[in-house]
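Notes from the 1:1 (GR / supervisor)

We went over the backlog. Supervisor wanted to see one worked example end to end before approving the batch request, so GR pasted a single chain during the call. The sequence is below; no edits were made to it. Supervisor asked that the structure be written out right there so they could see what the output format looks like.
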Amino acid sequence: MARTRMSSLWSILLLLALSAALCTRSAAATNDDDGSYGTDLDAGRRARSAATVAEILSVHNEARREVGVPPLVWSPQIAGYAKGFAQSRRGDCAPRRSPLFYFGENVVVGKGRHWNATALAAPWVAEGQWYDYGSNSCAAPPGAGCLRYTQVVWRNTTQVGCARIVCGSNDTLLVCDYFPPGNYGTGRPY
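Structure output shown during the call:
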């Protein structure tokens, strides 16, 4: 049973990697009005994308450093899945969980279009104020919780991939997927 599950997971990850490679190739082939192939535009996008990745990793890894767990590494394949799911929510911008449970997932919506990744992910880390390691419990006020925080700092999670989009409502949606997922069983996150 476990071998079948791992085999399915690797198949999904391979498909994600192939999809990301095909999307990258087709995006690179876009011709600009001046006859060039968008090198300046692509360089700007890559720089903004790299800055977003650095922001996301910084927020996550600072929280992980504070509790003594190893840093997360960025996974372009997982980010590709997060992007596909985020784009599927563009119409309603609803912070719902994706249907694929091979990943842990945090989703947040910021009102308006001018949100950076740090500001969007910071509330997940702020949930740590309500988490009590000694009792492995959460004392969050009604409507809040600790599960997004515990996913950020889950000791066995090693990879993260995220996507940030502006929805049709002009609000900003951030989806982060984690592998291996956290928040399972009764164990402590770290």
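Supervisor's comment: The chain is about 45% helix and 15% strand.
Batch request approved.
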